[in-house]
Amino acid sequence: MAVIARHLTILGRVQGVFYRNWAVERANSLGLAGWVRNRMDGSVEALVEGAEEAVEQFIALAHEGPPAAHVTRIDAAVVDVEGLASFQKRPTC
């Protein structure tokens, strides 16, 4: 099973709606590693790595997000796998 990594920029109403907590829960349930954080521009940024199918499933779910979110776009870039051990919420940057 191939391990892949994606850097995500999630746009829309994604701050103040528990998007990061939702992302941590979903990533953990899918067995993914990485991190998620708010950006000063109002977007959410994430690095997700793990089995290809699980990463793709996370991205598909991320288009919905938690109930109060309204995702308008997700930009996903292929990045190198870092070999992270867990999925964490990081401070805003």
Can you describe this structure?
Its EC number is 3.6.1.7. This protein is of the alpha+beta class. The protein has a single domain (3-82), classed as Alpha-Beta Plaits. Helices cover 24% and strands 40% of the residues. It has two helices and five strands. It has helices at residues 19-29, 52-62; strands at residues 3-13, 33-38, 44-51, 70-78, 87-89. A hairpin with a 5-residue loop joins strand 2 (33-38) and strand 3. The protein is globular. The mean pLDDT is 97.
> How many helical elements?
2
Give the helices and strands as they follow along the chain.
EHEEHEE
> What about the largest sheet?
5 strands, mixed
**What share of residues are in beta strands?**
35-45%
Number of domains: 1
Mean pLDDT: 97
The counted number of beta strands is 5
Would you tell me which CATH topology applies?
Alpha-Beta Plaits
Gyration radius from CA atoms, angstroms: 12 Å
Structural class: alpha+beta
Helix content: 10-25%
Point out poorly predicted stretches: none
CATH class: Alpha Beta
Order of strands across the biggest sheet? 4-1-3-2-5
